[in-house]
Every structure is written in structure tokens, then in C-alpha cells.
Amino acid sequence: METEETMPEASLQEEVPEEVRAGLNLAPDEEVRVSLSTDIKLDGHYGPAWVLATDRRLLAFSPDGEGPPDIVQVPLAEITAVEIRNLLASGVLKVRTAREGTTLALFSKSLLPKFSKVPDRIETLVKQARPAGDQEEVVKRTVGGAKTAQKRCKQCGRPIREWMGVCQACLDTRKLFIRLMSYALPYWGLIAVSLTLLLTATFIGLTPPLLMRSLIDDVLAPAGGRVQTAPSAQGLRAEPPPARDGGERLPLSRGRGGTSRLAILVILLLAVNISRNALAAFRSYIMSRVGQRITFDLRRQVYQHLHRLSLSFYNERETGRIMSSITQDVSRLQDFISEGLQEVIRNTLTILIICIILFSINPGLAALVLLPTPFLIWATSHFSKKLHDIYHGLWRRWAGLSALLADVIPGVRVVKAFAQEKREVDRFEGTSQALLAGELRVARVRSLFSPLMTFLTSIGGLLIWWVGGLKVIGGTLTLGDFVAFTGYMWQFYGPVESLCQLNNRFQHAATSAERVFEVLDTQPDVADRPDAIPMPRIRGQVEFQGATFGYEFGKPVLKNLNFVVEPGEMIGLAGHSGAGKSTLINLICRFYDVQEGAVLIDGHDIRDVTLKSLRDQIGVVLQEPFLFNGTVAENIAYGKPEASMDEIVAAARAANAHDFILNFPDGYDTFVGERGARVSGGERQRISIARAILRNPRILILDEATASVDTQTESQIQEALERLVRGRTTFAIAHRLSTLKNAHRLLIIDKGQLAEIGTHDELIAKDGIYANLCRMQTELSKLKVW
Amino acid sequence: MEQEYALKQELNILDPKHLRLFLDEFEDLTLELEGRGTFKPVTVMRAFPVTDRERFIILKDKAEKEIGIVRDLSDLDPESRAALAAELERIYFTPKIVFVHNIEEQFHIPKWEVETDRGPRVFEIRSGRHNQDLRVLGSGHILIRDADGNQYEIPDYRKLDPVSQALIEGQI
Description:
heterodimer; A: 786 residues; alpha/beta; 6-stranded mixed sheet; 4-stranded antiparallel sheet; 18 strands; 15% strand; extended; disordered N terminus; B: 172 residues; alpha+beta; 3-stranded antiparallel sheet; 4 helices; elongated
């Protein structure tokens, strides 16, 4: 597994086979520092090849069929550049010397994570190998950036389906269920009650056929026997002849005794019915209660955990997926915990008891009942699997349809502007037709399924009717036994069917569980160290010491940044898009941790202080300010919920927001709507500035705070910002350089490196990137005037 | 802490001892402010019309320019207070609903038939703006703005009769 924390030595040194060692002719005192296997040989065929770095050279060993292996070597001291070429479907490790370039290894995209660490390591080795005093940089490069498309399972390496998010092959169902059950543990009392109720209800539910038997054999049949001209009735009727044990029963049923017995039985049946249903109702309430409590616990735990996770977690995942794991997955688990498991218990138990009763009544007939069972099991599993597969396809088609809608409807202006209505309708029709086809398939399978089931079970029934009927006629079985038998038989097939379908339910629950646990098991990359101390009140000195950071393997966005910002200084950050300005700010806020070097505030490494104490003292105003669905006052006080009305109004005034707020009929109590949709961009911006002002941060970050508003609003916001900036260390990113006119110093970032730093005048005098940017913008603004 | 002080300075709070509010002969609200003269007519509004009606009353002059803020109604002298309260009462006319006859929903537009402390009333609430036009504050307090902008309130719906309560429960 790839963890970044492991020492490079460890992960970049693999066991080298003896023949490779032998083939390479290493000097006896030569130390192997890096040894990596690749999966593509230098001749382009698949096969193991090796790259080694010793303390003096770089070596490549690549077997070449029958012939002698290809061996390449480059002395470390001559290397000027190390390159990983991330190609469309493979990767190349290449080094350059002053004279030539050499390909050292080819590898498949699967090994990219491993190889992307190589350049750093080689750089260190090269520096060690060079004669002292040679300070020339080793250029490290990652060329190309074709993204590794598939996410893979960490355990088995299988690609993970995008919409699934979990590797189904690695689902350890049993372990998941044990873990799930641990959530049910706090409610064991209720669960035990429910289980007892369930068992009782199951037992009671099994009594009616027995009562029926008694009703027929002990009450009705003898009475019926009396009506008929007794023994001669044997002929065609199914009624049992009173011959067998009728001798004892006849007197009982005659007269009042029979009626009272009938009454007792009917009352008993009624009681069974009432108690069974009452118990079921009670149980279902208890179980829903348990289920809802568990869902509540899980949901809260998941949400709480989501807020502990770092930004990188959110960058890797779609919002929709995260949301569905809080809502849908959790409720699916509830269904499983509260119903699925009890169902298993109830069905198994029912089947067992019925078997016992059936066999005790008449083993021969019982065997007949069991006869269709294997077919039933086969048919149910087969069909439910098939249905499941079809449903899955159907589900994806539905998703496709909604994706189409979500895509086209918001873009309806474009559709109209290009007069493409017909094409969109056709496109929809195509998708819709696919859906129709899918639905029809489901309908076909389903309409086949239930008649087939009925048929299978009724075959059992017919057998019983025939064989049992013969027995009744033959006098070896009482009518009551027969009725009881058929009654149990019908109760028997239901549980068998539902047990067969349970597998799917389990599979679903397991998938959901895995997704939920995946979230719960993710550890935040940025977290408080155990010995973290609260950040004392910040004076405002910010220092970057060789800070290097990248969002992906081997692709640093910021490289070796070094600078110091004094307390109260306002720093303007400028540079081309994608130069790394926002990343720099992310590092100050510690949304991410630097990979090398450190960021210090007042001399404290920000990784040594608690996140809360750090971020409490940082205020951020973003280009697209985010307001939560609440009132204006609540949004202003978001970073300081205990703020008084005085403070809120004062902050709003300082942010030039007071006047427009009072123009709303509800004043400060106005709802801003979801994401602040009911207020304009400039208003949102000023509310967010008020929010930052109220927080009274020691370090202020303005990320393109005025980029999305018109010039007049901008001047109002600028005025508000000037008040906010006073006396605080401020980092301001701006594309419109005029916004940075108040900055004490400007920091120009270019391709992840600190290109220029100094005051406006200094940088203009230097005539570098900044001067160029300024000139371009002046040109542009001239154009605007015309 | 010096920052905190600076922030407070942003507030344009009027000293209650140095102001007098009254209705003049034209029934215009008039403000006499010591050292700054007389303003009339003065328009007033609540900064927090929902959460705190007695505090942060904004006074504006004819040109809608803010004169200042009355921090708390109860700081004023009784006459000024009465004048200001009466004006606010008129501006924020909000009858209290005491009984709900019926709430009928057609095309997602709920139509309320109610009894208020000012008499019977029928009104509709715009659809899709529920949390904005039907605001449930803490402890059963409900504020309603109808489709035409009229306001109503229910101080605590849980204290209404069961029928009204059930009808309201269906809406919030």
C-alpha cells in the first residue's frame, strides 16, 4: 500500500533478484540506495525490469529475450535533470546529462504512484554524489498529466466502479455485519423484547391449523357424522369415516357438549388472531424505534466525522455521493438492522417448527411437501438475481435520464440560442426509450416470476390433495389432520421464498455499510497533533521556510517558497492563473499541510498548534462568498455566534452593508436564501466582509474579494476593506492590480515559485513579470475607455 | 482590544437623553436632536423586526439618510417612547391570529381563514417561500407575511385551540 509517511528508503527499495545483481556488476563497496521493479522492459514488452540507484550510478536492467539483458548506466554526478513522463497510457523515467538523455525505465500507469517519488530521491543522491561546492540545481520534472483514470481497491487492486465507491469483491460481509451489530448493542434491551415478541408471535401464528384440526375432528366431523346415516357414508365424500376413533368422540359432540366446544375453539382462534396481530404491531413499533435510533446515531456520527475531515477528502469526492451516504445508505442500514435480521430468525424458525409439526402428523405427506422446495429455492434465487441485475441496469438508465435533464434544463438558453430543441428532444427520447426497454424487461421477468412460484407451490398442494385425499378416503388420516396439513404447507413456502431473496438484501446492506464505514474510517490528513498547543494571540508575522506542496504525487504546485511577512503588513499576491496563489493561502489556513519545509506564524510551526486556535484568528473573504440559509444577522455572526447586536450592526456599517440591509423589509432579520441566493453578488460580498470584520482576525485573507462585482460596488467594497485591513497582516489575491494599490509589498508567484517580491515601485523598476502584468492591464483599461 | 473599540465607533447611536420624539400638528413624527436641530418627517424602521422589536430603531430623515440609531426604546422618555412606539406600531402593523378556521391549499398556495385580534381575515401565502414568509421562531412564535405583504403573527401557536394547532402544524 502507498502511504506517504513511510520513509522513502523503505518504499523505494525492493528486493533485487540475484541474477540482476550479478548482471549489473556492482562494485563490492557500491551501496544500492534505490531499487525498483517495473512492469515494462526497455524493449517495450511486458516483463520485469529493474532500475537501481547506487551511491555512484543509476542503472537499468532489462532482460531481452534470449540475448544478453539491456543494461544502461549513467553516473550520478553527471545527471542534470530527472524526468517522469506521464504519458497517455504509460510512463517513462528519463534522466538527462549535459550531453544526452537516457531512458531508464518504462512502466505502466499502475506504477505511476511508485515512480513519481523517484525524482526526489535521485536528486538527493545526485547532490550527494557531486563534488562538494557544485551547487547546480538538478531539474526535476513531471511531464504530462494524463490522469490515472480508475480508482483502485487498496486491498485487491481491482478497479472500483465509479458510482459504487467500494470494492465489492473485498466486502467482508461478516465483518461488516458484526460492526453494524455493534451499533445495535446499546439497544439490546429493546431488541431482546422485540425478539421475544417475535418468537411468541411466530408460535402463536402457528397454532391456527392445529385448532382447525381440533375443530374439524372433534367438533364438526362427529356432528356431521350424526347427520349422515352413519357408517355407510364412506363412499365418495372426503369426510373421515366416524369409524376410527369416532367411538369416543361421538358422545362428546352430541348435544350441548359439541356446541360449547365449538365456541371454545372459535374463541381461541379469535384470541390467537388478536394476540398475534397485537404482538406484531407492538413489535413493529419497537423495532422501528430501535432502527430509527440507530440511524440517528449513525447519521450523527457520519456527519460529525465529515466535519473533521480535511478539504482533500471533499476534493476527491462528489458532493452527491457524500450526501447520499448520509441519507440513503444510512437508512438502508436501518432497514437491515431492524428488519432484515429478524426476518432471518423468524423465517428459519417458522420453517423448522412447521417441519417438525408436519413430520409428526404424517412423515410421508411431509416429505411430499418438501418435494417442490428445491425447485422453489432454485427459482427464487435465480429470479431474484436476474431481477437484481435488470434493476441495476434500469437504475443506471434512470440515472442517465436525470443526468440528461440536469444537464439540459439549466442550459436551456444555449439550446434555444442555437435552435437545438429538436435535437435535445430526440436525445431525451433515445434515453427514454432505453428506459422503456428496461422497464419492459423487468415487467416480463416479474410477470413470469410470480405465476411460476404459484405454480411450483401449487404442485406441492396438488400432491398433498391427491395423496392426502386418498389417505383420508382410505381412513388412515383424519380430515382435521388433513386440513392442518394443508394449512401448514402454505405457511411453509412463504418463508422459504423470502429466505432465498434475502441474499440480495444482505448484499445491498453490505454495500451501504461499506460506504458509510469508508467515510467513518477516513482519517483527516490535517489534524491536531497530540501535543498541539493553542496558538497564542497572533502578532502577525508569517514565514514560509522552503515550503513545498502539491495536490498530487510528484506534482508540486508550490516549490520551495521562502519569505517573511511582518506583522501588519499587507501583501498583494499576483501572478498568472494557476500559479499557486490560492494554494499559498490554503497553506496559511492549514487546509493542507506542506510536504516539505514549514509555515510559521509568529515563529510557531502551524502544525504544532491546534487548528481551532489557528483558524479562529484568521479571517477569509472569498471571491464567491458563501452565505448559509439564514438571516443576514446570523450570517454576519457566523464566525462569532455570541456577537451582540451592537457588534453585528457595527460590523455591517464598517463593511458598507448597513444601508442596503435596512432596505430589506425585514432588515437584519431578512432571510438570505439558500447560498445567499436572494441577495446580489456585491451584497453577499459585503455581508461576508462584515463577517470577517466581526471576527476581528489577526491575519486576513482576501481571495479575489472584488473580482465578481461591478466597479461602483467594488469601490464601496474597497473602502470597507481598507478599514478591515488596518493593523492586520493581510494577504490579498487580485487579478485587477489596481486593487492592490494599498499593498505594502507584492509577492509575484510564477509556476509555483516566488518570482518577485517588493514594493510596486521596486517591481516596476525591476521590469519583470509584475511590470509586464501592469502594462498589459493599463493597455486593457485604455481600451475600455475608448 | 483597541480593535473592538474602533468597531463600536462605527455605530451611530443617539443619546436618548438628548433627543425628543413627538407627533407635530401634521401628525408627522418629528425628532429634536440636541445640537443637530429638528428633523421632520422622520421615518423609522427596526433593524431587527423579527428578533428584537424594541431595540435598534433606525431613524431616517426626509432624504432617507440615516440620522442615527435608538438603541433601546425603553431608554427614551415616556412621551418620545410612546410616539415612536405608535409610529412603529403603524409601520409594522401585525395583527395577532387567535383562531384558525381553515387552511386550504390549492396549487401549493395555502389560503388561511383566520380570526385575528383585529377581526376576521382571509389571506394567501406565496408558494415556495415558506421559510421566508412563514417564519417559525423559537417557542411557538410564528410570523406570517401574506402574498400582498401584510403581516400577521401568532405569539405561541401551541397555546391556540387544538383545531387551529392541527391546521398550523400541517403548514410548518
